Amino acid sequence: MTDSKKPGASQAGAEPMVRREFIKRSGVALATTAGAGIATAGAPRRAHAAGRTEITFASAKFFGKETIAQVVDAFNQSQGKIHVTYVELPPPSSSTEVHQSLVQQLARRNGNPDVFTQDIVWIAEFAAAGWALALDDVVDQAARKAYFPGIVEACTWDGKLTALPWFLDSGMLYYRTDLLGDAKPPETWEQLVETSQKLTKDGKARFGFLWQGKQAEVLVCDLVSFITSNNGKILAADGKTVEVAEPAVVEAVQLMHDTINKYKISPQDVLSWDEEPSRRPFTAGQAVFLRNWSYVWSIAQDKSESSVAGKVGVAPLPHFPGGKSAACLGGYQYGVNAATKNRDAAVEFVTWMSSPATQLRFATQLGLAPTRPAVFDEPSLLKAQPFMGTLKPVFVGATPRPVTPKYSQVTLVLQSEVSKALVSGDVKSAMASAKSKIEAIVKA
Amino acid sequence: MAEALAPRLAGGRERWRVGSWLTPLLLLIPACATMLGVSVYPILNGLWLSFRDTSLISQTDKFVGAANYVKLLADGQYWNAWIHTVVFTGASTLFETILGLGMALVLNEWFEARGAVRAAMLVPWAIPTVVTSQMFGWLFDGQNGLVNHILVGSGLISHNIGWYSSPDYALLTIIIADVWKTTPFMALLLLAGLQTIPRSLAEACYIDGASAWQYFWHVRLPLLMPTLLIAALLRALDAFRIFDLVYVLTGGGPADSTETLSTLTYKTLFSALQFGYGSALATAMFVTEALIALAFALFLIPRMRRTSA
Predict the structure, then answer these.
(1) Which domain holds residue A62?
(2) Same domain, A230 and A93
(3) Are strands A287-292 and A82-89 parallel, antiparallel or unpaired?
(4) Alpha-carbon distance A444 to A435, whole Å?
């Protein structure tokens, strides 16, 4: 801008004029953007300053027939004391970015955002860092019984409830009703192997069982389903004792390896597949069984995308003899910033967000499964999302991934070592190596 | 006219002298400030972080001396990624240079529709890498991929190869994808180099009765060598930072067989949020790149001197 003020610049012909004009215009544009920025940040505060407490709510982006912003608006209109400003973060498919953004904001400890939503695996991390407010006096023991037990466990860190349940997702077993005929879906892994082998041998399907073995977060989700169904654990309840080298875990990982190499019910490709590559052969009619999340259901029933529409059923994942079906728990949950300056308003807002009525709204309008079993029995939910009704038994057995504030480091070790175990077949030494590496992390 | 201007010029020169160092300096400030801000500062900050145990998760941030580097030297993951990165860089640079040279030689000759072929050649390079990754994901799909279909159909292999699910093939497949994508870039640089070689040399060779091979080996290649080495250096430094193909196609797996320094650093910095150790990884990467550049320079500079002499 200095050179446009230089004397004589305007005499030098058309070009500087254009440039000056450009600078002037961009200056105006800048001022407008800056003004707009201030306006969006400040206007609601001024507009609603009349007695309303202002709080902010940051969440990853979810949408369906409604958006989160519309639900937040409904809260703002439902009462006259609190006004919530919604800050949209990237969608959960970019969860690394969502995580980063939340950590950066929370680490500043300036109370912004007052309320946020977090992936289930970050709860311990945020709680241990002291960023999440304990909500024990807000939700008493009796009120906690209204949620699925697995989700309450996942929202608890060091004996304190530091998150409030929002919605659930979990791994489940999709199967082909037309191929299984009158037979019930398998309850044990042994049955799954038998059925798969029989149907592929008869040429009814190309693959028996598809799952996700790509060296990524999804591998840990599949891992948890397998080992928990054999009563195995990654970390003991104290969060310090590493149990990944216990026989139950080794046996379960061995089964993952054997589905490919011994029983040959899964193609070797599962080792490079995450959710979508494993879903495609299933909805193309090439496989009997698939382990995946709830999103597959609507695709499987869509005739334009699926050649098996109307021929798909869903059931809890199988288990080992003496074990219980265990699905890996997923979903986002609410948290209140420990540094919030408006504790009461924030608590009132999350309580409303986690209430049965709002959960029902999220279920019918955004397709997010409730964390309260009672909401599943609402007739309006079954009408809007018939499939969700069948999920209730799956969610009852859903199990959290290891609960530790160092989860993001633990998962990288698990991804690497379990991938090695599955490729080499030397499960014992890979899990022993995982144990020593995880111990070094959680004890540090 | 000249007499009339002279005093004014003299006076102008006086004024110009005052501003002679000030104006350029002022004009340089924005560029220097930008460079300092976006390039020098982050590098120094990264270096500084690599001596601290900064982590957003454990919320530590104190000076730990060389502890991160000691840990790095003993870290199997790091050396595993280091070897993959070096293998990838060596293999992809070598193949891209050889194939690119072949393409450049062909495109340097006159033939029908040469312009169209030159333009078409650049298409792979113009496609965003993420799109290339998806494309190669489909081509080399273990079950329904075209490559397996052709290989099985032609009887070269008896059953499908899991290109991305086998640690023996995953890195190879990524190298193939990179060679496909970046060879045109090398061809373009080498074509520019070939065009600087005077036609008269070809005529002289023809008159002296040299064969095409002799012309290539004794005349063109030595003259092209500086361009070739600079192009290979650019390519090697770029290949060393390989990230997107790996991130989209394999995520570093299976069994860490495609983990490279960039993907490992990304995971450490942005998934585990260990800024201290992650910065040490990034610094080690920077040092290795500097060594590659140095090796090229030691090889290149004497040759360039010889050519210009």
Answers:
(1) 48-166+331-394
(2) no
(3) unpaired
(4) 14
How much of chain A is in helix, strand and coil states, percent to nearest 5?
A: 50, 15, 35
- Cβ–Cβ under 8 Å, residues B174 and B88: yes
Q: Using one digit for the tens of pLDDT, what is the confidence trace for A181-192?
A: 888 889 999 999
Cis peptide before B254 (omega within 30 of 0): yes
Give ipTM to 2 decimals.
0.78
Choose among B162, B167, B274: nearest Cβ to A269: B162
Contacts for A381 with CB less than 8 Å, ≥ 6 apart: A360, A363, A364, A370, A375, A388, A389
Mean pLDDT of A421-442: 91
Structure token pair of residue A413: 């070790």
Find the distance separating the first CA and the last CA of chain A, reported in whole Å. 54
Q: Quick check: B254 and A419 CB within 8 A?
A: yes
Q: Spell out which residues of chain A touch residue B133, defining contact as CB-CB under 8 Å.
A: none
What span, in angstroms and rounded, lies between the C-alpha atoms of A208 and A286? 9
- CB proximity under 8 Å: A 258-297 to B: 267-274, 277, 281
Predicted confidence (pLDDT) at residue A36 exceeds the cutoff of 50:
no
Number of domains in chain B: 1
pLDDT for the residue A346: 93
Can you give B51-114 as a three-state secondary structure string? CECCECCCCECCECCCHHHHHHHCCHHHHHHHHHHHHHHHHHHHHHHHHHHHHHHHHHCCCCCH
Instruction: Say if residue A132's pLDDT is above 50.
Output: yes
For B303, the domain range is 67-308
A160 & A249 share domain: no
CA angle A263, A268, A272 (to 5 degrees): 140
Confidence of residue A356 (pLDDT cuts 50, 70, 90): very high
Nearest Cα residue in chain A from B164: A272
A111 falls within a domain: yes
The domain that holds A157 is classified in CATH as: 3.40.190.10
For residue B271, the chain A residues in CB contact (below 8 A) are: 96, 99, 408, 411-412
d(CA A328, CA B175): 35
> What are the tokens at B182?
């970046």
